[in-house]
Amino acid sequence: MYLTKEEERIYDGEEGVAKQKAMELLVALGKIYGADKLIPVGSAQIAGVSYKTIGDAGIDFIRFFSDNGAKVSVNSYLNPAGMDLSNWADAGVKNSFAKKQNEIIEIFRKMGINITCTCTPYLIGIRPKLGEHIAWSESSAVSFVNSILGARTNREGGPSSLAAAIIGKTANYGYHLDENRVANFLVRVRAKLKTISDYGALGVYVGRLVQNSVPAFELVQQATEDQLKALGAAMAASGAVALFFVKGQTPEWFLDSPEIIEVKEEDIEKLKKELTDEKDVDHVVIGCPHCSLDEIKNIAEKVHGKKLKKELWIYTSRQVKEEADKQGYIEIIKDAGGKVISDTCPVVSPIEDMGFKSTATNSGKAALYLKKLCKQKIHFGDVEEITE
Description:
Layout: H1 5-11, H2 17-32, E1 38-40, E2 43-46, H3 51-67, E3 75-78, H4 95-110, E4 135-136, H5 139-149, H6 158-167, E5 169-171, E6 183-189, H7 196-210, E7 215-218, H8 225-238, E8 245-246, E9 255-263, H9 265-275, E10 283-286, H10 293-303, E11 311-316, H11 318-326, H12 329-336, E12 339-342, E13 358-361, H13 364-373, E14 377-380, H14 383-387
Parallel strand pairs: 2-3, 2-4, 6-7, 6-9, 7-8, 10-11, 10-13, 11-12, 13-14
Antiparallel strand pairs: 1-5
């Protein structure tokens, strides 16, 4: 890799040990992936925030940078934590977990990172421009900004996104390069998709087939941003898709002798049944990735004037929750017996320690991860069905 004089000084430790370690990490990754140089990034989005996922070893890792004076040099944002930072006790989070989680947040805050704690920063006004190089790490956020906005990022890990935030640069490889932003699968969808769960099921189906490749979709009808969000999140969870195209909707559409995949109505229905292994559930979760204002409005309309017999937990960012509160949606959901939770998500929160063993969701991503990471039995269905 070519390093500038300034980058060499950092690499040699002339600007402190924290910057040196961050630079060493970026250079090591660059060498692994054949990068020719480092490139500036407009922002960083950092995963590895929940105590459930990083544990004490993760705290030691990030504390090293903080204790050695590290400060981020570009706008930097946090992925969801392991709990609602304001109302964690109401959700049944243990004091011991909360103490560790707050410690993590304070370490990140000390380095100048915005405590956004959301997997959908693009829903709170953080929308990188077409062609802008960034260093984001949350799989569904990476998929959305690469695909829907046309920004450029690889699927960074928590450590590499933190290193990029400190240095303000990342290694020039993968989806930062034109030649890799080309689809090698063309997915012709013959099914008429109506709901977010339809798109989630399609994402699980295609992600399993293409793995870490780039698929391009021909859909029967236009999809909403929320539906495309669900599609990308599910493909990132079932495979490792970080970039996809949709004909007539995404800013990019580049194909190179793609393999054809046809998806029919029966494929979607079969996959939905496969994702369900429990009809009678302990609770319902919606908001993986975090809910938009439109999604919360839709849920409020469904439960308005009713009383819930099961727990309904809705996950979103603090900013979207505040706006939903202004619109009166939060009060409607609370009156029905539901909870609107911010700063966290069902996957990275310790729901398995809160007494829940079975969960209903409309998210393809959550259906996969809750089973694998939270020991949940799953009922997968549309919002209308699972709220009913």
